[in-house]
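job 3f2a | input accepted
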Amino acid sequence: MLTRIELEKQEEELLASYAMKSENSWGRVYPEEEHAYRSVFQRDRDRIVHSTAFRRLEYKTQVFVNHEGDYYRTRLTHTIEVAQIARSIARSLKLNEDLTEAIALAHDLGHTPFGHSGEEALRELMEDEGGFEHNWQSLRVVEQLERRNPRFKGLNLSWEVREGIIKHTTPYDKASFSEFEPDKFPTLEAQTVNLADEIAYNNHDLDDGLTAEMINEEVLGKSSFWEETYQEIKKKFPDSDRERRKYQTIKALINLQVTDVIVETEKRLEQAQVGSVKDVREASSLLVSFSPQMSRKNEQLKQFLLEHLYHHYRVVRMTEKARRFIRELFKIYLDYPLQLPPDTQEKFKEATPARVICDYIAGMTDRFALNEYNKLFQPYERV
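job 3f2a | predicted structure (383 res):
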């Protein structure tokens, strides 16, 4: 029988000196008795998986609105891919896989319906009401909005997981985090999730864009990173069809990026002589990183996606339509709050009407938001 204490001993023996060990966690806001068989980060992971916000990720989208088709990635499938990539990197670097997975599974809990267009709409609407940013909203979800324990609000996650959520960094994320040592870097586990997120969304957007026929292999020839890899796959599998070549190319791209991160991070850890979590936090720069060569390739790929997929007229139509949905829902709720469900109205005692409405909309799935819009604006739709 493997107990929590034995699990913690295994971490001490198997993980690197700079990995975050469960027994060294800074703990929870509300003290709880430790579990006999699960570490603190394993319990965090399980609480996230069983949360309402996590289940809703199934019907929140990345680029393509949910009703566009069943094939395209949702926030849930994206989150699973991020967790898989992050764990692969963490395992090779001898980091804490349970902490890595918990942060990965939680990193998008605060995302709005309709992808980044929904977030941008709420950011504009909340500009004079304290703002909106999805990392901050993810933290709000796990600290305030989930109601599962009669003794406290939120999920009562460990400090390290909450730090990993608020310090998650991508081009879309600009959260402030005064409570979480803003002058210091997060754990290597959190840094790993940052890179895994970027690897996942770039490559699955390629996949979805090809499936939607908004981009094709000919256009992708303009991306040297794609073209070099694609040509190697054609040589390796000369008799394969286009669909299989696509999958194999994307698989190869992910493998190249993951391998690069592992090798480059090992090099940076050695150069900086990192021997502890304290060294990680006080380093002069992020330690989990692409090499300069891979960073250039990755940036070129992102620019390609921006020009040929995210600015594709069909995607622009979807995003602009989504912004209108969010704006109009927000306005009608704010003008006539009695249209909100009674349990949501109750929350006006805890926060301003604008913040309660923002939380309510941010928690919607694409499908729920579309149905709600129809109920409120279509005269023959049942309410």
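job 3f2a | The two ends are 54 Å apart (CA to CA).
job 3f2a | closed
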